Amino acid sequence: MGGGGNSAYGQRTFKRSKSHFTDRITADGRDGWPVAAGRYRLVVCRACPWASRALVSRRLLGLEDALSLAVADPIQDDRSWRFTLDPDGRDPVLGIRFLSEAYDRRETGYPGGVSVPAIVDVPSGKLVTNDYQQLTLDLATEWTALHRSGAPDLYPYALRDEIDTVMADVYEDVNNGVYRAGFATDQEEYEAACAGVFQRLELLTPRLARQRYLVGDTITEADIRLFTTLVRFDAVYHGHFKCNRWKLTENPVLWAYARDLYQTPGFGDTVDFDHIERHYYQVHTGINPTRIVPLGPDLSGWLTPHHRQELGGRPFGDGTPPGPVPAAEEVAAPGRP
Predict the structure, then answer these.
(1) Is residue 40 flagged as an active site residue?
(2) How would you list the strands of the sheet with 126-129, edge to edge?
């Protein structure tokens, strides 16, 4: 992890590192990594919002059989994400104890630390990409030959300019804004970041009051990226990151929107609240030195009616919902409402 490890969170000004490994896995293999069923392994932590994007996309597109999944322990240490959830503490496919081993096989002395999501080439054991911004777009557009029948178009060509604009604002003020607030080192830095989070959420509220999804009448990549922050909001960002002007449950529009997505196959069935809470409160010792994990919030509200269908919209467009979660990938009971 570098820079003092997990205890350094909240002790230095936060700046998100750019992805260092930006190779792309494409249909034509132009970066040397062609799309191929069974060749690659997606490494995630269910606690991480950036990795959660990939989990949702993979489920919606039906790539479970084509792109295998490794789930890292939410309690990382300073050596990086570790596979202590697996027997003998090794990923059963890659045979490694730490994700950093795949990074080291690709390059030594790389900048930016070890991050998820990451895709690893199984035959060589080398990291291919940790470009969290591009990875899910490529799953939607380059992996189409391996999509399930009825997979939705998550990045429709005609709407890409609008989707990109919405996603850029959401990234700057919401996805990344909560981290700038949570890891701020002085009052002014914190207040600016926190204000930016809520200003953007308040700008999104009237948009989502009149339409079911962020762009168009179907689920797109923009919804995935907002959802992964909203689903963590009351559990960790409101308290742990001090984004506490109001709770998600106190904004009727955004709360209904988040519940709608959570209850849509492919979204909530990838979310593990137990992993989320234990990661943030036990890993970020620089801002929570006691490592105490709160008992709340009550998660049962995630399953209550949202009535968003009254706004119209077709979640999967002309497609269909994904099938059941593979048994080996089901979220354990402590992580569900």
Answers:
(1) no
(2) 68-71, 40-44, 118-121, 126-129
